[in-house]
Amino acid sequence: MGNPFGLNSTVTLGIVSAVGRGHMGITQYEDFIQTDAAINPGNSGGALVNTNGELVGINTAIFSQTGGYQGVGFAVSTTMAKPISESLITTGKVIRGYVGIGIQDLNQDLAMSFSVKDSKGALISDVKPDSPAAEAGLKQGDVIVEYNGVAVEDGVALQRMVTSTPIRTKVLVRVIRDGRERDVTVRVAEQPDDSKIAKVGKSEGDSAFSGIELEDLDQDTARVLGFDGNRGVVVTNVKPGSEAEKAGLLAGDIIQEMNRRPIKSVQDFKKASSDLKTGANVLMLISRRGSALFLSVKV
Asked: Is the pTM of this model over 0.70?
């Protein structure tokens, strides 16, 4: 139901194609219902109801290459919308749980690099200073496989769990660190207004370094790229069609580590690269637009 093109009380019919859609790049927090019911400009905020007339979602977005309806629409589920509406009514703001980590999904190569048996779980790419995660002892490179007794499938699943946890709740988090499982107790806090916490990065594919140009990082460049550190080298150019482009490296990325070894200069990068054997997988830590991200790159 909605108001497409100013046409009041328009009703369209369809089926639910999928639930729990994430990684869409539409919003920071995603738990979408996918439907083929027509959603057009003006439908956003309208109701998605089932055959019993019960509200199941709020129409939000479409996937389209033309700007018009193409059979793929998305609605925010009521499981996400209801707590938000209740929070707005009672407190006047949205309150979400916060632990202070940046996370990304695992792929097979990253799982191998972090001694994880499969690609399920969420990889911690960043731990915010003085955050609940830092105080609890969580570390960059930990893989979260269980949150409060529930298995973690991927980064999106963990994000939903954390943000929906009541603040001041103590939760047991199971991580894999250096190939061993350990349990850590974390006290969930309220997410700061300017927080980018639990931003989910996407794990990229494999290949080699060829086709990139690098420069040492200076303070001005770091500021422009939204990087608050002083360690790393800047990727200034990636040759189109090169192996580096296929690996997922982008101009503007800041390479901070290779195989957990700090990279402070182009000279460090060259030295680390010279020790690599053809066919080896290299674990790289980069900063992209202020967010940390691990890449597994095959040489």
From this structure: no
